[in-house]
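User: Fold this; tokens only.

Assistant: Input:
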Amino acid sequence: MELNSKKLESTSRLIYYSISIILCLFLILLSGRIIDDLDTATTRPEVEQFLDNTYLSKLHTKIAPLDKEIETLSNKSSTLEKTISIAKENYTNEKQSFDNWVQARKTLGSPDKDQEVVARAKKLDEFYQVEQAWRTQRQTLQTKIDEDRNKTQIFQEQIDKEHQKAETLYQEELKHYDLLVFLIRLLFVAPILALGIFFFIRYRKHKFWPLFFGFTLFSLYAFFFGLVPYLPSYGGYVRYIVGILLSAGLGYYAIKSIGQYIEKKQAELKVSTQERAKNVQTSVAEKALENHYCPSCGKDFIIKKWEFPIKNIDTEAYKLVTDYCRHCGLQLFRKCDKCGTKNFAHLPFCSACGAKPTVEKVKE
């Protein structure tokens, strides 16, 4: 069976990351159950806990008969309103009849001295008095309704005040509850996060790195989804400060790591090309040749057409690479000792005859 190194590398990478993700998922599921059990260690407060139910019960007891009385009086007022409407209609009809009758009597003489006119005017006034009497009764009922509603409003304001007081106490207790939940979760998540960071820094190149990487992914999930949402806000100050500290810490680590890497590469470039060539791993050499960069300094070794002086252009063959890196001096290509084919100097076998170099991989 032919061994395809590139296919094996991509398949291995897929398997490794699959192992990491599967391990991370199971750790997340397990931590979810544990955190749920931890949350039961304390009980979330409710607004009803801070209400004086005895006091509220007394207030509601006082309001109930007032509401009932208001309803009764309102029904009576509605009945009176209908009665007043009928009385007003009767008065209007009687007045219209009286006006028509008076207009007819004017043709017969002086209506002001007619006894019948006086009698009908008196009857009309009685209709008006009846309407006014009903209106007076309705006004009395409305006054009583307004008084009861004012009393109800006073009691309702006392109830609202009690609810506001309970809400204030509830918010204070809720802050203590959120802080307690955060501290409980912190005791659980902080060691996991510290261990995840330690695994990433110390064992990211270990042969069992997929397992350590899976735990690191889980620690990040536990931090951002299991702890950060429960971080007390206190007006946003705490979260902003934590964000600043995390940004500063991660930034410091990134800047320090990049600086150390640059110093390391600069130190490597000061070493002789022969020593650097000995430290080039085959996997690094394969990637370097595939992506045409120097395995020591990481710079592209392909020469572009515009980089050739016009006088040096060869019309028969156009050279795109050189045997040595233009930037650090490392030997990149050399001829096979057996067949003379030019090969990448850091690969173990000749691409033409398959011979292994019988001398050192590169020369100074």
